[in-house]
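User: I'm writing a short report section on ligand binding and want a predicted complex to refer to. Could you take this sequence and 2'-deoxyguanosine-5'-monophosphate and write out the structure as tokens? A short remark afterwards would be nice.
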Amino acid sequence: MENCLFCKIIAGDIPSTKVYEDEKVYAFRDINPQAPTHILVIPKKHVSSLAMIDEMEDTDLAACLRAVRLIAQQEGLKNGYRVVSNCGPDACQSVPHLHFHILGGTQLADQMA
Ligand code: DGP
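Assistant: Sure. The structure tokens for the complex follow:
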């Protein structure tokens, strides 16, 4: 998708610190980490948010969630981690390309909002 920041990251037009990639998924470190481990997992096929998943193949969505588990293992998040997908303005979604935040490496706040 033209003018999509995360599509440009997938294409390599904007640099990122890659932690995982397969044919359906790309994952990289968040530029503004909110935990010692903060990774973004995104589908390579553009979809703007979870609100639009009917536009996605189930296999692409499943690949993202399987990648989350693999990355958590790779990052040594043995004591747990949080997975967040901000969806729309009330959730302060700032990049309109579906992404799953993996947050971990410390005791996270009990409150989520
Ligand atoms: P959200 O607010 O849920 O839409 O999260 C978007 C995240 O994307 C936010 O935590 C910061 C991150 N981000 C924005 N621009 C870049 C970038 O150019 N590179 C990287 N690595 N992360 C970015």
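A remark for your report: Residues 76 and 105 are 8 Å apart (CA to CA). Strands lie at 18-21, 25-29, 37-43, 81-84, 100-104.
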